[in-house]
């Protein structure tokens, strides 16, 4: 007996106890679902930050292709100078949206040239085909364009020749050519030969191999990362760019549709936002506009969730507001957007959608009014929108902002007002340290089940900020996984959730951490991406209670858990986070009349080092590891690794 006592004392001294070593019992009530999971529960949020659109997912390789930047020659340099007046920038006010173009006066039949540096260089691949195009007008004969792609050592790695027929009005010419070397820092030379005057604009270079092979489309590998997540929705176009630094700089969707050459460029608000990351060449050409956003959502099977300006600029910048009696234009934009998305081809905006190649409806179901706006001035403007939208489109759910923070006076004021207004969905944002996410796993356990639904519209766990590419650590991702068990457990209240921001370019970021990082050729998912993907591809249809001693599994002994049932696949899906440096042995007791198959699928993300992150060089440090496990009956015994997120899929009969 003394030996047994001595052994127990020794184990206690090493940090082990008989109690600690006994399995933790979790009870799963498979036959008593507590609610339904929204079909668009887990989604993505796109904002044009960190070169997310131009220089990112929009596959255009030429920077400032139409000379519309505030500094018209930004990104360009002249390769050969003629006499004074050889190169003239013309500003023609009669041209819609795109007023500037370049006039080349070649009186001496010189070889004139331009070079474009691209977005931190141009990413091109050996064996790939690329299309150069431009708009031009000239009545001169014998005009020819010579195109060259150069590597960083100025070696030609791809070339083409493009003769131009004389035309009296603006026309497009294009040529495709192969590239024989891979580099992420190529540059483009465009030479012009022939005597006479030539006007050129929209000088453009795209890979032929874009997403779905669409001409002048989206970067294939970046869209594939989104498609692989199987997101339930995509929120666009932001974010703070919806508000703008002032109202003149706000996002106006009508200026982003129609012919691309007529879309009016504006400065991206992130251009000068952060003094430590100034990005003077960051503009929005709107080649990725609202039509393309809707099309992207449709492509990846996601519900489109557009957000519109509510008559308020960013309150962290100018805080400008439009007077209430001048709000009609903003409200009309919302009504017209619904027509653009859903209206018949007999309507003005439905006809434009059809002319752009999509006569069918985009089936818009919800619309955000304002982004991170707050205060009584927001409520006043939201009320005007709500009245008009409810009267004319009661089928459209309205998403409203709860401000920038998940607690405090601003949040409390908005939460009360929005619920009193019977707003459909409240958009909550939280950028917080891992400790907040861990302690907030039960945040929604006691939310009103009959009131507004919740959209966790922007969230990310920040260990430090701003940091650098790839610094979304396993610590941050695992804390998000723990928090997301609470979102899933409360899926009857939390209708949607999305991490933010989505993309970051390693050479052009302003904000971090981000979910997916890219350079001009490569893309990788952070540990947070791996967590988000596992949730989104295992969403289930019904919430299944998983309890410990009658309570939610939300942090005791650093364990977090949720469970769902997928009616289509007839599977129970259990998610468990062990946020602890020691393994945890757990007994999962499934209470059900259904039979369970003995073999289950196990997917695990784990690493004992919380500081581990993924990178371009090591993109899979944190990645899912799949295995099968055999259980005996409905009492499942599983040991969860230290600092792990584990997913168990069990088929039922």
UniProtKB/TrEMBL annotation:
EC number: 3.2.1.55
UniProt signal peptide: 1-20
The keyword Ribonucleoprotein belongs to this UniProt entry's keyword annotation: no
Domain Alpha-L-arabinofuranosidase C-terminal residues, every copy: 457-644
Catalytic activity: Hydrolysis of terminal non-reducing alpha-L-arabinofuranoside residues in alpha-L-arabinosides
Alphabetical list of InterPro entries matching this protein: Alpha-L-AF_C (IPR010720), ASD1_cat (IPR055235), GH (IPR017853), Glyco_hydro_b (IPR013780), Glycosyl_Hydrolase_51 (IPR051563)
Gene3D superfamilies referenced in this protein's UniProt entry, alphabetically: Galactose-binding domain-like, Glycosidases, Golgi alpha-mannosidase II
Domain of life per record: Bacteria
Any Pfam family hit: ASD1_dom
GO molecular function: alpha-L-arabinofuranosidase activity
Keywords: Glycoprotein, Glycosidase, Hydrolase, Signal
Family that this chain belongs to: Belongs to the glycosyl hydrolase 51 family.
Listed name of the protein: non-reducing end alpha-L-arabinofuranosidase
Organism the protein comes from: Sphingobacterium zeae
Origin organism lineage: Bacteria, Pseudomonadati, Bacteroidota, Sphingobacteriia, Sphingobacteriales
